[in-house]
UniProtKB/TrEMBL annotation:
CDD domains: NAD_bind_2_malic_enz. The keyword Oxidoreductase applies. Residues 240-462 form the Malic enzyme NAD-binding domain. This is NAD-dependent malic enzyme. InterPro entries: Aminoacid_DH-like_N_sf, Malate_Decarboxylase, Malic_N_dom, Malic_N_dom_sf, Malic_NAD-bd, Malic_NAD-bd_bact_type, NAD(P)-bd_dom_sf. Keywords: Oxidoreductase. Residues 95-228 form the Malic enzyme N-terminal domain. The keyword Methyltransferase does not apply. It comes from Actinoplanes sichuanensis.
């Protein structure tokens, strides 16, 4: 099955072009780019003389090959001289995306004596006498380790720790931007479960939380479980729990739009790895009627041979009718399809066979399990993981607020109750007056999301009732910052 990929800012290029100085030259450039299937996002005149104009033309393309095609078509135009092509994504990553900055001024000997020796020794001894004070007197109170072995990076697979760094840097930048949390990439040159557990345990004293990232299933399940047992700080696997929280939030609002109840619907989930497993477990905790889990092996069902422990659990606890066919067959009559797997597994005709007022969350990136344009012809609600499509389901809605709340409340673990509370908080940010088929989940840039999620998490940690709509509370009631006195 072949589909036309959509242009994306992830493949944005800037082309420096010298073109003849006539009235139609600029128009010819934009027409050429449009005919090549790209989207012009900016055009700036850099220089000119009586015969030529030098312009920087920026456009979104679908992939690297498409970008090359756009450039080639420009080069073939009369009077056009392509001088330079810059990939804007690579430019953004030059030198990395994060840095360390000091919170204190070191302008003279007096300040140096308090920040470092001899004054720092007093603080060291205070912590030695009472280790719990490390949360208040060091970066531990607001710092998270983003830990990966590079074995399951985005949709790229096992590319190793060095190649995983740009993603982990990006994660750290998102922590800071959306949650005010200081996070740091910790990429490990090992994929041995015992070694990973030992390393994370050893570095844990410096951090207030551990965010496991892009570690392949099923090892990620054991690593998380063992670290939770060992550590007195929260361990959160974002590929599992962040995804599950956001899917539940989006599904909660989608149900409101189509007028269905969780306990009445049949859900098909494509992908039984880390994300899919966590999604299904959280949906079951929320009381979803029935789930069919589908993976490379087929629909997981009782009696299926050669399943790992995680898939065996799903086979035993889902799929009431023990369906064993293919994915298109599984979604016949289903109310909800959730994809966290691979591109182009379904067609619009497959979606047409789902139940009335169906819901499709096709979240494989960059290309979804079904073309969203085709899915919208038949489904009542369509969501993807793409930022250039409506209803983007993005983990950044969850993890900054979850960690903000856990750090503020000095939580020692992440729990399922926190996941449910965070999902409700995210869903409630979209008020009834804004809810519709193209708005079932808030924008990642909605400033109410992180405070709402953090308030819900703090309430769970403190054993207090979770606010009905944390996003609607005044900032003073959100208890945004922890006590900083000593």
């Amino acid at each position: 099955m072949v589909t036309t990929r959509l242009p994306s800012a992830g493949f944005s290029i800037t082309i420096r072009i010298a073109v003849t100085a006539d009235a139609s030259s600029i128009g010819r450039l934009t027409t050429c780019v449009g005919e090549a299937g790209a989207i012009v996002t900016a055009l700036d005149v850099v220089d000119s003389d009586p015969t030529k104009v030098l312009v920087d033309l920026t456009c979104d393309t679908a992939d690297a090959a498409h970008a090359d095609q756009v450039v080639k078509q420009l080069e073939e135009q009369d009077g056009v001289d392509v001088r330079k092509v810059s990939d804007r994504t690579f430019l953004l990553h030059l030198g990395g995306k994060i840095e360390v900055s000091s919170k204190v001024a070191l302008r003279n000997r007096d300040e140096l004596s308090r920040a470092y020796t001899p004054g720092v020794a007093r603080v060291c001894m205070a912590i030695a006498e009472n280790p719990a004070d490390a949360r208040r007197l060091t970066i531990k109170r607001n710092t998270v380790a983003v830990v990966s072995d590079g074995s399951a990076v985005l949709g790229l697979g096992n590319i190793g720790p060095a190649a995983a760094m740009p993603v982990m840097e990006g994660k750290a930048a998102l922590f800071k931007r959306f949650g005010g949390v200081d996070a740091w990439p910790v990429v490990l040159d090992t994929q041995d479960t015992d070694e990973i557990v030992a390393i994370v345990k050893a570095i844990a004293p410096a951090y207030g939380g551990i965010n496991l990232e892009d570690i392949a299933a099923p090892r990620c399940f054991e690593i998380e479980a063992r670290l939770r047992e060992m550590l007195d700080i929260p361990v959160f696997h974002d590929d599992q729990h962040g995804t599950a929280i956001c899917v539940l939030a989006a599904l909660t609002n989608a149900m409101r739009v189509v007028g269905k109840r969780m306990e009445d619907v049949k859900v098909v989930v494509s992908g039984a790895g880390a994300a899919g497993t966590a999604i299904m477990k959280l949906l079951m905790r929320q009381g979803v009627g029935d789930i069919i889990a589908y993976d490379r092996k087929g629909a997981l069902h009782r009696g299926m041979p050669d399943l790992n422990e995680s898939m065996q659990w799903l086979a035993d606890h889902t799929n009431k009718d023990n369906y064993s066919g293919d994915l298109p067959g599984a979604i016949v009559g289903a109310d909800v399809f959730i994809g966290v797997s691979a591109p182009n597994l379904l067609t619009g005709d497959d979606i047409a066979k789902m139940a009335d007022r169906s819901i499709v969350f096709a979240m494989a990136n960059p290309d979804p399990e079904v073309d969203p344009r085709e899915a919208r012809k038949h489904a009542a609600i369509v969501a993807t993981g793409r930022s250039d499509q409506p209803n983007q389901i993005n983990n950044v809605l969850a993890f900054p607020g979850v960690f903000r709340g856990m750090l503020d409340a000095a939580a020692e673990e992440f729990t399922e109750e926190m996941a449910l509370a965070a999902a409700r908080a995210i869903a409630d940010v979209v008020g009834e007056d804004k809810l519709n088929p193209t708005v079932i989940i808030p924008s990642v840039f909605d400033p109410k999301v992180t405070p709402a999620v953090a308030a819900a998490i703090r309430a769970v940690v403190k054993g207090m009732p979770v606010p009905a709509n944390p996003a609607a509370l005044p900032e003073s009631e959100l208890d945004k910052a922890p006590d900083t006195t000593f």
